[in-house]
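Thought: the user wants the 3D structure for the chain below. I'll pass the sequence to the structure tool as-is, report back what it returns, then summarize two notable features.
Action: structure_tool
Action Input:
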Amino acid sequence: MQIIPVLDIKNNQVVQAIKGERSNYQPIQSSLCSSSNPLEITKTLINKTKAKVLYLADLDAIENKKNTPDNFRLIHLLSQQFPDQSFWVDAGFDSSDKLTLWKTIPNLKPVIGTESHSDISQLLKVLTSDSILSLDFKDGHLLGPKEILDQAQHWPNEIILMSLDSVGSNSGPNFSLMTRFQTLHSKKIFYAAGGVRDQKDLERLKDSATGGALIASALHNGKLTFEK
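Observation:
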């Protein structure tokens, strides 16, 4: 099972994500690194975990507020500094034009989050076989067009099950959600996002044949380590 470190980036800093309440996010306080600088955090996470894949959420792009620039330049720089890593990036891809720009980064794989879409036709226009679909849940409900749940024929092979209310909550992954989707769509690869606390959670996900886990808090608070 793949361990995928997460960086939530807002205003050029890595922030601590808690329960999807983005207006309250503050710069990360990490036991691994004294800085919230994305370059330093990325370097540290790669050194500690040996991860080949990192997940980046460009929160400024996802929130899409007026007069707030996205973090394209920063993420492009990270991709250049770490060319051997693959970066899975959710930057609120709600149009083909935006997606085309980001795809100029060679080691980037776009994550298409349902929360960034208001209707199914818009979502399907940007959802391609070389992307990753993020099914974004909060309080048990899918954010975005519900119709996508009944159109698995359009899904790419890799799916993130994002439980936003579990992120940074120390409550554990949404195992029932994972089991539900693995049962219905056994040929797809699913990744758990939100709530992973420790090695026991990872072992349980691994035992259920989960493809991987996206992790932030448990790495920064020291509950998960990768020391030999």
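Final Answer: Structure generated. The CA atoms of residues 87 and 108 lie 5 Å apart. The chain has one domain: 2-220.
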